[in-house]
Amino acid sequence: MTMVSEIELSDESLAFNESRRLLPRRIALTTSIAYAEGARHRLDVCRPRSATAAPVVVFFYGGGWRSGSKRTYRYVAKALARRGYVTVLPDYRIYPQARYPDFLDDGAQAVRWVKNNVNRFGGDPQKIFLMGHSAGAHIAAMLAIDATWLQKVGLKPGRELAGLIGISGPYDFLPLKDETLAIIFGGANRPETQPISHVTAGAPPALLLTGDKDDVVGAGNSTRLAERLRAAGNEATAVIYPRAGHYIIVAAIAPIIRSLVPVLRDTDAFIAKVLQPRAQAGVP
After folding, report:
1. For residues 88 and 109, is the Cβ–Cβ distance under 8 A?
2. CB atoms < 10 A from the CB of 6, how many?
3. I want to staple 132 with a disulfide (CB 3.0 to 4.6 A). Which of 4, 8, 140, 239 is the partner?
4. 167: burial class by Cβ within 10 Å (0-12, 13-18, 19+)?
5. How far apart are CA 238 and CA 225, in angstroms?
6. What whole-number distance in Å separates Cα of residue 108 and Cα of residue 65?
7. Apex CA 109: angle with CA 96 and CA 26, to 5°?
8. Number of H helices, E strands in the chain
9. Burial class of 265 by CB neighbour count within 10 A (0 to 12, 13 to 18, 19+)
10. How far apart are CA 211 and CA 168, in angstroms?
C-alpha cells in the first residue's frame, strides 16, 4: 500500500519561505563554465540578479545515463532561480563514452566546483542542495549517501550538503533487465551501484518525490529508500503524487503546467524546513 506524504511547515517556516520569495524575479544565466577538462564537463549557473548568500541547488538531469543535455533543462534552472535559488546545471559524461562510476566522479567534481566558486554568483557554499530527476536523481543520491565520491574531491556529504531532493529516482532497481544498462553498470546485479546499499547514519535530509503512474522507475524506489534512511536515523520524506508519471513530474517545474504536480511547492517547503533552524540560530 502506498501513501502520499505531505510536507508540513510551521507558521514560522512558512514565513521564512515567503520572505525569500520577495527576491526580485530578474535572473541571470551564465552558460558553459568548465568545471573539469572535457567537452561534457561544463555547467550553467542561473541566479537571481540580487542573490546574496542564497541557497544553492545543483540539478542533475536524467536520460538513462546515456542521453541528456543541460540546454534542455534550463527551464528547471530558470524556475528555481526565480524562487530565489542559485541553480547549477552540470553536464556529465554519458554512455557510450562513460560507464559507472564515471558520471558519479563528474558529479563530485561539479559539486567541488560549486563549493569553491558559487559565492561569486551570490550563493552560499554552506547551503548546497543536490537535486535530480531519474538518472540524475540516482547521481544526486549516490553523492549524498555514499561518501566515496565526494571524499575523492575532499568533501563530506554530511558536512557539505544541506539536503537531497530526488525526483523519480532509481535508488533500488536491481536486477537490471535492460542490456545497455547492464553494460553501463558493469553487470546486471551489482548492489554497490545502488544508493540504498550505502545508507548509514549522518546522511543529509532527503525529499524523494515520485508519481504513482511512473512506469519507468517505480515509486517503490523512493519509498524504500526513505524507509531505509529513516531506519538509520536520518530525516527522509517520500511524496507520491497521484496520477503523475515519470516525465510529467519534472515537466511540471515549467510554469505552463506547474499546477499539475506541486514539485516546486514541495521543494520550497523542504528547503525552508531544512534552513529554518539555521536562520533561527543566526547561522549565516
Report:
1. no
2. 10
3. 140
4. buried
5. 9
6. 16
7. 105
8. 10, 8
9. middle
10. 7
Residue 102 backbone dihedrals phi, psi, to 5 degrees? -55, -45
Report the C-alpha gap between 4 and 145 in whole angstroms. 23
Count of all residues that appear for the chain in the document: 284
- Cross-strand bridge partners of residue 58: 88, 130
What the block records as the C-alpha cell of 78 is 530558470
Alpha carbon 35 to its chain centroid, in Å, reads: 18
Q: For the segment 200-223, what is each residue's pLDDT rounded down to a tens digit?
A: 999 999 999 999 999 999 999 999
Hunting for cell 542564497 — which residue is that? 54
Residue 196 and residue 236 in contact, taking contact as beta carbons nearer than 8 Å: no
pLDDT digits (tens, 9 = 90+) for 132-174: 999 999 999 999 999 999 999 999 999 999 999 999 999 999 9
Give the closest residue to 263 by CA, choosing from 92, 75, 86: 75
Check: pTM over 0.70? Answer yes or no: yes
State how far the Cα of 86 lies from the Cα of 78, in Å rounded to an integer: 9
Q: At what angle do helices 263-281 and 11-20 cross, to 10 degrees?
A: 100
**CA proximity to 100, closest of 59, 66, 151, 49:** 66
